C-alpha cells in the first residue's frame, strides 16, 4: 500500500509475502546501472543545497593540458600526412568497432544469464512464500510488515515489524496507513505515541528501525 503524508512524502506499507528480497536484479543492473539494496545507507540525510564546485587538482590540470596539446597537434596535420595516416586510422576504427560489438554481445549474454537466474530465484521465492503462508494464516507464524520510504534510488527510512497472524497484519497496514496520511513527520514506531499505542494493541515486535531523518515527534 502506498500513502502520502501531509508533507507530500510517499510511504509504502507492505506485508512481506516473499521470504527474502531479490538478490538477482538484471533489470536494475542492465537498464539503470544500479543494484538496489533494501536498507538505509549509513550517513546523514541528503543535503538539500547545491553542491560546491570542486577545483581541478594540479594533476588533473596537467592531464587536461596534455590532452589539449594532442588535439592541437592533430588539428595541424597537413594534407599530405594523411596519405600514410589514413590507413592506420581505418585500422583503429575497425578494431574499435570489433571490440565494441564483442562487448555488446558479452553484455547481452550476461543479461540473459541474469534473467534466467532471476526467474529461478522468483520461482523459489513463490514456492517458499506459499508454503509459509499456511502457518501464517493459522497464526502459527508471524507476518512481516515493512514500512519504508525512498529517496532517489535508495531507502531513507525502513521499519520492520513482526505481527502475530496474517489477518492482523492486514488490518495493521490499514490502520498505519491512516496515521501516515495525517502525519507530517517521518515514521517513528517508538517516539510517536499514536504509532506506539497502535503497535502495542496489535502485539507487534519491532525488529528493525532506521531512518536518515531525526525529526522530533510533536507532543500530543
Instruction: Report the oligomer.
Output: single chain
Rounded radius of gyration (Å): 27 Å
Q: Looking across the biggest beta sheet, what order are the strands in?
A: 1-2-3-4-5
Task: Spell the H/E element sequence.
Answer: EEHHHEEHHE
Would you give an account of this structure?
With 220 residues, the chain is an alpha+beta fold. Helix content is 48%, strand content 17%. The protein has 5 helices and 5 strands, in the order E-E-H-H-H-E-E-H-H-E. It has helices at residues 26-32, 58-75, 82-137, 166-181, 193-201, and strands at residues 2-4, 10-15, 142-151, 154-164, 205-211. A 5-stranded antiparallel beta sheet has the order 1-2-3-4-5, with helices on one face. Helix 4 (166-181) packs antiparallel against helix 5 (193-201). The longest helix is centred in the middle third of the chain and has 56 residues, at 82-137. It is elongated and about 85 Å long. Mean pLDDT is 78; it is low at 46-53 and 216-220.
What would a concise description of this structure say?
Helix content is about 50%, strand content about 15%.
Layout: helices, strands, pairs:
Layout (H helix, E strand, L loop, with lengths): L1 E3 L5 E6 L10 H7 L25 H18 L6 H56 L4 E10 L2 E11 L1 H16 L11 H9 L3 E7 L9
Antiparallel strand pairs: 1-2, 2-3, 3-4, 4-5
Amino acid at each position: 500500500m502506498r500513502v502520502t503524508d501531509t508533507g507530500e512524502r510517499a510511504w509504502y506499507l507492505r506485508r512481506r509475502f516473499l521470504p527474502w528480497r531479490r538478490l538477482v536484479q538484471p533489470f536494475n543492473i542492465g537498464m539503470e546501472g544500479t543494484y538496489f539494496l533494501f536498507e538505509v545507507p549509513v550517513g546523514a540525510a541528503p543535503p538539500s543545497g547545491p553542491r560546491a564546485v570542486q577545483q581541478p587538482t594540479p594533476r588533473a590540470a596537467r592531464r587536461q593540458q596534455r590532452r589539449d596539446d594532442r588535439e592541437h597537434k592533430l588539428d595541424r596535420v597537413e594534407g599530405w600526412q594523411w596519405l600514410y595516416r589514413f590507413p592506420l586510422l581505418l585500422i583503429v576504427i575497425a578494431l574499435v568497432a570489433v571490440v565494441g560489438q564483442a562487448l555488446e554481445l558479452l553484455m547481452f549474454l550476461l543479461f540473459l544469464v541474469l534473467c534466467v537466474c532471476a526467474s529461478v530465484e522468483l520461482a523459489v521465492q513463490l514456492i517458499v512464500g506459499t508454503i509459509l503462508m499456511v502457518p501464517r494464516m493459522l497464526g502459527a507464524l508471524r507476518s512481516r510488515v515493512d514500512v519504508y520510504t525512498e529517496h532517489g534510488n535508495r531507502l531513507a527510512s525502513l521499519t520492520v515489524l513482526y505481527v502475530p497472524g496474517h489477518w492482523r497484519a492486514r488490518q495493521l497496514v490499514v490502520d498505519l496507513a491512516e496515521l501516515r496520511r495525517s502525519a507530517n513527520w517521518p515514521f517513528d514506531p517508538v517516539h510517536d505515541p499514536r504509532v506506539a499505542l497502535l503497535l502495542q494493541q496489535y502485539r507487534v515486535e519491532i525488529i528493525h528501525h532506521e531512518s536518515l531523518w531525526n525529526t522530533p515527534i510533536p507532543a500530543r
